[in-house]
Amino acid sequence: MNVKNVFSLVHHFGNEEDQISANFGFMLKVNEEVLGEFLKNLGIAELNRKELGTTDVETQVPFMEGQDERSKIDLQIKLGDKCIVFIESKIKGSKLGPQQLRKYAKILEKERPFFNCIRLVCITQFDRKDEFEDEFRKLKAAIGLKDEECKYL
Q1: CATH assignment at residue 11
Q2: Which letter does DSSP use for residue 5 in this model?
Q3: Containing structural domain, residue 26
């Protein structure tokens, strides 16, 4: 779902986690300064105003993985053909689904030939760094993601 209009996002999604992701996506889309700072935190080179203005931000992006397995990326940012970012958000005690980050990492690997950089980002409101760092360690070993491609905020 495109995040250009905040009114189409408010209460569109049934759970709080998806609503927060959608609203964060809206903030990134409408505020180039916030978007620029966020991308800097991800290690993505500074972009000019035109590049920031044409950045595509979407929420709940569906992907097919295999024949029957569907995934929805909480938030996706595309910077033309420069970079693609997947953001997984978790609130409170909500757990990662089984193999959830692995699925996203595999999708990003398939996208790698089309982008100069990829990022898999996990955002939480509480300190869950150890949990996510452990998942990232497994992904780096199994799929070959690089350190700079996995970010925890």
Answers
A1: 3.40.1350
A2: -
A3: 6-152
Helix, strand, coil content of the chain in percent (nearest 5): 45, 25, 30
**In degrees, to the nearest 5, what angle opens at C-alpha 85 toward C-alphas 84 and 90?**
160
The owner of tokens 């993985």 is: 65
- For residue range 94-150, list pLDDT tens digits in order: 777 668 888 888 889 889 999 989 999 988 877 878 888 888 888 888 888 888 998
Residue 1 belongs to a domain? no
Name the pairing type of β-strands 83-90 and 117-124.
parallel
How far apart are the C-alpha atoms of 108 and 117, rounded to whole Å?
10
Task: State the Cα torsion 57-58-64-68 to the nearest 10°.
Answer: 160
Q: Higher model confidence: residue 20 or residue 89?
A: 89
How many separate domains does the chain show?
1
Phi-psi domain of 116 (left: phi exceeds 0; alpha: psi -120 through 50; beta: other): alpha
Query: Which residue has tokens 């495109």?
Result: 2
